[in-house]
Each structure stands twice: as C-alpha cells, then as structure tokens.
Amino acid sequence: MHSILISGAAQGIGAATAMLFYQHGYKVGIYDINVAQAEQLAQQLGEHAKAGFLDVADYTSWETALAEFSAWAGEINILVNNAGILYSGPFEDTTIAAHHRTLDINVKGLLNGCHATFSYLKESSFARVINLSSASAIYGQADLASYATSKFAVRGLTESLDIEWQPYGIRVLDVMPLFVGTAMVKDMQAESIKKMGVHLKAEDVAQDILKLVQLKDSIWQATHHPVGLKSKFLFHLSRMSPQFVNRISNLLIARQ
Prior knowledge:
There is one protein chain. The protein has one domain (3-254): Rossmann fold (3-Layer(aba) Sandwich). The protein has helices spanning 12-23, 35-45, 59-73, 96-121, 145-164, 191-196, 202-214, 229-240, 243-254, and strands at 3-7, 27-32, 49-53, 78-81, 127-132, 170-177, 224-227. It is α/β, with parallel strands linked by helices.
C-alpha cells in the first residue's frame, strides 16, 4: 500500500486530495497547521489516515512530521506540496509583511518540503512529488503580484527538480489550476476572477493529482499540467503567442 503526505490538507484542495486517495487505497498523511481540523478529517476517513501538525515555513516542523509519518506508513511514496496562501489587491496597498508571508509559505514552504522529503523519497519503492502551482504562473496577474511570483517559483523549482532527481526515479510534477472554489478565493480582490470566473472545484484538482500519480512514467510525460479548459487554453496560448500579445491579453483581463 503506497503512502501520500499532503501539506495544508485540513481543508480545500488538500482535504479533497486526502479523501480521494484514501478511497483509492492509499495511506494518507493529513498534515496542517490547523491540527484539530486535520485530526477531524483523519477520524472521518479511518484507520489508514493519520493527521499531524505541520508549519511548512519551519524546516524543523517538516523533519518532525516526516519522521512521524514515515514510521507510521512504512515509507513515503508521494508528497503533495499543497499548503499555500493568497493576498489580493493592489501591490502597494498590501503590507510588505503580507507579501513576505506569501513567499514564506508558498515558496520557502515548498523548498522545505522537497528538501526534507528527498531522503525518504529516494529510498522508497515508488516516488513522486506533486506541487500546487497555478495558472498565475503562466503570466503574472495584476492584483495578485506576490502570489503569481510565488507560483512562478513553484514552476521553476518543479522543472529543476524533475530533471535533477531523474536518476533517483523521482518525478516532480505540478498542477496549474485557474480559480478553484475554495476559501482561498472568497472575497478575492482581482479583476481577473470577475472576468474568468470560478469553474473548478477542489475535487477537480484532486482528480488530476491522482491521474498524475497513477500515470506510468515516460519521457513524454509533461512536467506541467494545467487543470480545466481555461487553464489549458491559456497555457498553450502563452507558448505560441508573442510576448506583447500575452501582455495585451492580460491587460484586458485586468481592466475594470
């Protein structure tokens, strides 16, 4: 029985992923800074689910969580770096502390997770890392500047490690959804969400994560995986269009 550890798993995409993988016979690690909510979900799922505390911005917290989960599960096969936060609104009106916190969780948290989990993954019978990127990593979004910056960092680290860890048999992939109907986008202040709308559920992203884990590894398997029709359209359009066209398109999206 393979195991999966999910950060930020107490709610939203993380919780949907935990439930889906549990239903498919995985040992599931539900790790979150909100440990009470994580424990509630684990109890709801059953004996093959384990909850624990994890502050992704703290490397020591990762080390403790990984040692605990590995001892319980036997080995760690899949890491899903899901934990993330979002601040929206004009860049200059957002406090610098909020911008820093975005990078601490969305970037440093992911760096911590990959770095701390590597020693477990390289020893496991099957290993895969799935990072939560975003359609905001296709082209930087107005009113989501530090969030988009963080997701470009996720995209870059995913590409780098997917190559670097190939000799160990570890694939590092990401999913790139547009706006997902979770608490993260509630009351979001960005013109793009008004224009593009929210058409994805947490369960849609979870299904794509499961597909990536179940796919047989191949040199043809892409590193980035847009989720949903709009995200796929924007991803492929950005690869074919000149930069000025991409900029104009995003100016139109951001215009009130």
